User: What shape does this take?
Amino acid sequence: MRIAVITGAAKGIGFETARQLSDRDVRVILTGRNAEALEAATATLKNSDWQVLDVGDDASVARFFDWLKTTHSRLDVLVNNAARVYGGRGSSVLGTDPETLHEAISNNAIGAFRMMQKALPMMRQGDYGRIVNVSSGMGALSDMGSGAVPYRVSKTALNALTLLAAQEAAANVKVNAVCPGWVRTDMGGQSATRDVPTGARGIVWAATLPDDGPTGGFFRDGKAIEW
Assistant: This one.
């Protein structure tokens, strides 16, 4: 049975990704900062476990991987889903505080970077790995709009890290970025055009790619999109 770790998994797209993977007989480990929420979410799933994890903290990430190596000894799938929205859609470059920009990059990109640094060696050792960085079309340079400056920049940074990690990954370790679209979650709001299962489906696709599947790409609904 494959072992999958999902960050920010207590609710929303993270939880739905865990549910869909669990239904595919993948053992899912839900992570996040709220123990009560994680425990409640895990109780509704089969093949599941949970651990408190703050991807923004080096020590927390180190403790988690120590636990993972001791408990499961391997990692097959990593879904870097944990993220926050920074700056409203009307925010501008001139109106964005540098500290907010720094915090957005730290949480939305460097958190995933920390996880990949720990995950890639484990996947190399196991001769298998699928890393999915949950990104956004709002971070695509090819279609860069205005507003939401901290969020856009953080997702652009995540896309760059995806490409860099894919080039360093071992054989049969695939690293891709996925845009789930505008999804009706606490983050996306109720005006969003997609339901949660639809948003998670593309993530699950990338998390379960066959050996001849793509790596170093940016996808929505299993189809390549421009960076």
